[in-house]
Design brief:
five-stranded mixed sheet; Ubiquitin-like (UB roll); binds iron/sulfur cluster; binds FE2/S2 (inorganic) cluster
């Protein structure tokens, strides 16, 4: 059977029928910047960070099916500038004040900004004021850091078999909402075993009790650039409250890794 191949920046990459450019690139160890994509979840195509050039046309690598003979440009100065502008817009739309965020060093948005040599937000800050939800014993939602990637929405629906999160509203009024009688996370059926509790790539859904457990300077992206990190892995943390619910108050608080 003939092998299907595409070329990414001149490198020949094979792919299987049904795979996207992103699938083929990830399998070949080629990094295409992305935020709303996670292997194992349905493609979303919303952040546009994975924009690549195919025969002179800008397309999203995470949604565009690979087809034999395709010439893909990925690592170019022009695309880097496009991706930097997108990242700057994401930064100014929320309150991404990295030095005061617990996710600093583990945040994919921050890591992408470093990868793209982003030095400032460039655009005027929106400074949104969206509601913080601290109603859950083990999780807290800071909506001002949400980049609307819908990873938590899809993880809950497609992996956890629930429907805990959604994005609602338009324009600057768009925000993460919780499907519970009160709209509070504490009244939802989310569990700490759910992928949705751990998948947020920024500091919008945080695990309580794990504040600064790993010192700044020794976190994921402090040690490795985003381009050399397996973004398919999601770290799972057990929390004190989770252990209490299990009847293991003194049980170990070791987390694991969820590979999608
Ligand atoms: S809360 Fe996190 S995972 Fe969910 S949509 Fe916002 S940024 Fe994405
Ligand atoms: S990763 Fe492709 S649009 Fe977000």
């Amino acid at each position: 059977m003939a092998t299907n191949t595409i070329r990414i920046d001149g490198v020949e990459v094979s792919f299987e029928a049904g795979q996207t450019i992103m699938d083929a690139a990830l399998a070949a160890g080629i990094y295409i910047p992305h935020l709303c994509h996670k292997p194992g979840l349905s493609p979303h195509g919303s952040c546009k960070l994975c924009t690549v050039d195919v025969n002179g046309r800008a397309v999203s690598a995470c949604t565009m099916p690979a087809s034999d003979g395709m010439e893909v440009a990925n690592d170019t100065e022009d695309l880097k500038e496009v991706r930097k502008s997108i990242t700057q817009m994401l930064f100014v739309e929320g309150n991404h004040l990295c030095p005061s965020c617990e996710k600093s060093g583990d945040c994919t948005l921050q890591a992408v900004a470093y990868h793209l040599d982003m030095l400032d937000g460039h655009y005027p800050q929106f400074y949104p004021r969206r509601e913080v939800d601290a109603s859950h014993p083990s999780l807290v939602i800071d909506r001002d850091r949400c980049i609307m990637c819908e990873l938590c929405v899809r993880a809950s629906r497609e992996v956890d078999g629930k429907d805990v999160f959604a994005i609602s509203g338009r324009g600057t009024g768009r925000q993460l909402i919780v499907n519970s009688p009160t709209g509070k996370l504490g009244d939802s059926d989310i569990s700490m075993d759910d992928l949705a509790a751990h998948i947020c790539p920024v500091g919008a859904i945080l695990i309580r009790d794990h504040g600064y457990e790993v010192p700044i300077g020794r976190r994921t992206f402090d040690l490795h650039s985003v381009a050399e990190t397996d973004l398919g892995e999601v770290k799972l943390f057990k929390t004190k409250h989770h252990d209490e619910a299990d009847g293991e108050v003194d049980g170990e608080k070791e987390g694991g890794v969820y590979g999608l």
